[in-house]
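Appendix B. One record, verbatim.
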Amino acid sequence: MPLLQSPAVIAFDADDTLWHNESFFKLTEARFAELLAPYCEKNRIEERLVAAERRNVHHYGYGIKGFILSMIETAIEVTDSKVPATVIGEILAAGQDMLGHPVEPLVGVREALAAIRGIAPLILITKGDLFDQERKIAASGLQKHFTAVDVVSEKSPEVYARVFARYTDDMSKVIMIGNSVRSDILPVLELGATAIHVPYPLLWALEAADFPDDHPKAIQLKSLTDLPALFGRA
């Protein structure tokens, strides 16, 4: 499978690309549905929560704090403003648990990063709450592999172009690796860069998008353990 022979920079997404993240959100969502079960059916609660997140992402940004605020808003809505304070307290406690949860790198991530180190600068581009993302990066033990870390509010072509411009003015020499087609693949392909999709078993509804199978610069791997072979570093 041909790749760029001399990339100027190799960029990685963080959540669900390098370490587990969405699984903790799903566990908290399940607990949230249990708390509100006396007021609303589970499927309806999930629909209302996704709708709240979609409305609020432009106000709160991405991450756990916005998620918790959207759960509180949803609880107020589905209970006609009758949600007990104890339930609100449990939602807040769930958020605090998420913010302190240990960071668990995915299988093979450490080895893959070590194998390709030196080919080009490795950088990390992640979106979300600055405080939480910095905590996870430090706790992961992976920061030593990266030349730079950028925490951005959105992953748009314009944002990517600004980050990549620090390394090259030729976007064809850029490689981006991530689990979200919407955030990590499509905006990068729009710039003319190469995008490598490594799916995670769980995906947030707001990140849903179809992988562009027919795009010549879009590559899909089963796992990051397959990444070094693309650079002759198997």
